[in-house]
Design a protein that fits this description.
Elements lengths: L2 E9 L3 H13 L5 E4 L4 E3 L4 H5 L9 E3 H4 L5 E3 L3 E5 L4 E4 L4 E9 L4 E2 L7 H4 L5 E2 L7 H10 L3 E7 L9 H15 L6 E7 L8 H14 L2 E3 L2 E7 L4 E8 L2 E9 L2 E3 L4 E2 L2 H4 L25 E3 L12 H20 L13 E8 L2 E7 L18 H19 L5
Helix pairs in contact: 1-9
Length: 401
């Protein structure tokens, strides 16, 4: 491949990368932009929960990557493996180097299946499922549909997550499905989470506590999944107190939905651009790198304290575009826009019910609609199921507000 140079290089052709590229071109068609992305397919990832609930199919949330990347952009179909910010270079898997004037980092999050012994080997069979991959999400509905009672476990790890609420959504939808089939009273539903609360904002936590009670879900706080024993259908957890592992807990399961541990991609964690926790070291307001002024970042690999959701990206992208163009044309930090940490997690609490949580850096509810945001609503279910997928493909990815 050799060495190529582009004015703006975007690492990642997912939600964030395509939204930023499209928005930049809407501002200035003369820009020279390259997108580094190895994938052939692009997925509407918020739809994976509904795939696992039998409401969507994979083809319904899948597009060719070539149809999503803006036609004016250069698609470098390769994977970034090393960042050399002092040389303004990105090294790709094929061995080539991409030089840039400005860099936008949005490679998404890395799912670390292999850090839980037995998980990767168990996925997709014998009741072990996960909505966190298009390859496995359809099997989640197979597990739900074929469940005849017994113990169903839903896990949440001790790492940051993309769409942290997804670990709960699948559980509530499964419970509603079991209820409709008359199986809920024959089921032992367990939510095992490394966290110590159901949600970090009281107004939403109170509502979700009521949902847990409605379905009879047993909560196991500070339980972090550490192993799957597929031969005996056992899940092993670390029980911790004040962050210190106390002892192991083993649970038998008939079905288990695993939310896997996640991290920033290895090439981010190993680069000079990472913070102490391995995420992209950004100013949380301007989304500019704290040490390299020609680098910006957004999305799930960012070290900003917002929830990692597509809704956050929708608000981050215009800030990155504005601030990048400002630095290119004027320089200096005066006049940079600020991102307030807005994120949203639409939590389906049953078929036809949804709690639309919206909040900012201060964990303050920031509702879009003039309605009590702490209530489950059918209208918000319709928004999630019908409007948001349309908006994603037809507005957001095209850089349209």
């Amino acid at each position: 491949m050799g060495i190529r140079h582009h004015q703006i290089v975007i690492v990642g052709g997912g939600t964030a990368g395509i939204t930023v590229a499209s928005t930049l071109f809407r501002k200035d068609r003369s820009l020279d932009i390259a997108v580094i992305e190895p994938s052939e397919k692009h997925y509407y990832q918020p739809g994976l929960t509904f795939v696992g609930a039998g409401l969507f199919t994979i083809p319904a949330i899948e597009r060719n990557e070539s149809d999503c990347i803006p036609s004016h952009a250069q698609w470098i179909k390769n994977a970034a493996v090393k960042l050399l910010p002092d040389q303004n270079k990105v090294v790709v898997k094929s061995g080539g180097e991409i030089q840039y004037d400005y860099l936008v980092l949005c490679p998404g999050i890395q799912i670390n299946w292999y850090t839980i012994p037995g998980l990767k080997e168990s996925l997709g069979k014998n009741g072990v499922c996960s909505n966190y991959s298009p390859s496995y999400a359809p099997y989640t509905f197979e597990c739900i549909k074929n469940f005849t009672g017994g113990t169903a476990i839903f896990t949440q790890p001790n790492t940051p997550l993309k769409c942290g609420g997804a670990a709960q959504k699948v559980m509530y939808l499964a419970c509603d499905y079991f209820r409709r089939k008359g199986l809920l009273n024959k089921s032992d539903i367990r939510f095992t989470t490394a966290a110590g609360e159901i949600f970090g904002i009281k107004a939403f936590a109170d509502t979700l506590t009521g949902v847990l009670y409605r379905y009879g879900i047993k909560t196991f706080w500070h339980h972090n999944l550490k192993e799957i024993r597929q031969d005996t259908q056992e899940a092993v957890f670390d029980l911790s107190e004040e962050g210190i592992s106390v002892h192991e807990v083993t649970m038998k399961y008939d079905m288990i939905h695993v939310t896997p541990p996640m991290s920033a991609p290895d090439f981010i964690r190993e680069s000079p651009l990472a913070n102490h926790a391995g995420w992209i070291d950004l100013d949380k307001d301007t989304l500019q790198h704290k040490r390299y002024t020609n680098i910006f970042g957004l999305g799930d690999a960012s070290g900003t304290p917002n929830a990692k959701t597509a809704a956050a990206i929708r608000k981050q992208a215009p800030v990155v575009v504005n601030n990048l163009l400002h630095i290119m044309k004027q320089g200096g930090v005066s006049g940079l826009k600020k991102y307030n940490g807005y994120s949203s997690c639409p939590i389906a609490t049953g078929y036809g019910k949804l709690l639309l949580t919206e909040f900012d850096y201060d964990k303050k509810p920031t509702p879009t609609f003039p309605l009590d945001p702490s209530k489950e609503r059918f209208s918000m279910w319709l928004l999630k199921r019908y409007f948001l997928p349309w908006f994603y493909w037809n507005r957001m990815l095209k850089g349209k507000p």
